[in-house]
Amino acid sequence: MSAAELLTSMNCTSGQIGQIKQKVPPATLKTIVLATIVTLCITVISGVCSKALSSSHPIFIGDNQVNEEKIAYVSPLQNEIINRENFVQRISKKYPAKCITYPAYGIAHIKLTKYINQKPVKINIVEIDKSANSALNIKPEIAGTKLSSRAQIRTIAQKNNSIVAVNAGYFKPQTGVPLGALVIDKQVLTGPIYNRVGIGIIEENNQTRFVMDKVVMNITIHSNKSILKADNINQPRMLSTYTIIYTPQWGNTSPMAPKYGKVAAVSNGKIIAMSANQITIPKDGFVISAPAKILDKLALERNITYDIRINETFKNADHIIGAGPYLVKDGEVFVDVNEQKLSSITGKNPRSAVGYNDKNELIIVTIDGREENSVGVTLTQLAHIMKGLGCTYAMNFDGGGSSVIYVNGKITNSPAQTGGISISNALTVYETTQPSQT
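User: That's the sequence. What structure does it adopt?
Assistant: Structure tokens below.
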């Protein structure tokens, strides 16, 4: 643009321009024109910058301006579909050239052989990302309708048409009663032993998250006159002095009373029967097994109930499975066998484990052992495997002959007994509704 055009754009008439030319020397006029050009350039640039700042920083928008930018809306279903694609890509990258199948959206099953100290170890891995399939449910199941029952994993898996099932907590071989904490649908079925570690599954706001900690339960028996501490619920007796509660989930009858003890049936808030032998557990009540002097006093009281409080980590947990020991804690290998009284299982064995990563994805592992083409692993070796898979927290499940995994209708590891031995409980994964195929 010429100097004359710039001046014209400033609304100067030809007469005014002439007056300027007459009054101002040529050199000075040239300086004024250059200054005017610079001023106009600064004005134009300032306007452009101001508009850019207004777009990126709302603080620069004037009172009468409207930000017309539109943010693209992604529906939950669209987001889930994106997560499915990302899940497959992530798994393919994590396990290159491995045998990978996808039995359902958000579930990957990987089979591989790892060599540890030049010895082969056959591993089954299941990774689960619920953000890729909101129809997935993850919860424990018991073998039967009562705690004192056992079944092969296929039978347990078929109770809810599971896509994946893996053996979970320890149990008493003679009866099948879980040895350790077990909570299903917020109902406490069994209490912890030795404060062993457990995994908690929490359902909140249509999302699932996992927690892991030692399970601690404070159990109290209340009446109109007293408060009594109980030591456990639905667990085999460990000391004759313990006070233990037995509910209908235990079975039809209670265990025998301890030495110098009694069992008392409670219904409608009062003791209706007492014995030193087995006693029927009321369907609408419970049985207290305790030293005789405690129950003799309680027999005169009314409004007898019990209350269970679980430590803060599991406060909102829908499901809890206790087992142990820890394998990974805060992203580091952590195997506390002595504290959890599990030093007898440290050798090379078939193993089952569960953990989760910082993206809240569940990772289930079984390892075959005691055979030539898979020698098994120690707990420390298992811990390193779980950490290597990205777990920030992981724990050991029951192993040995119990270690078995079921995927998409088949047993996919090689347990010593065909189909796996009869077990007490399992962690299952199933769909409640069919996810969108879009």
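Residues 3-60 form one domain.
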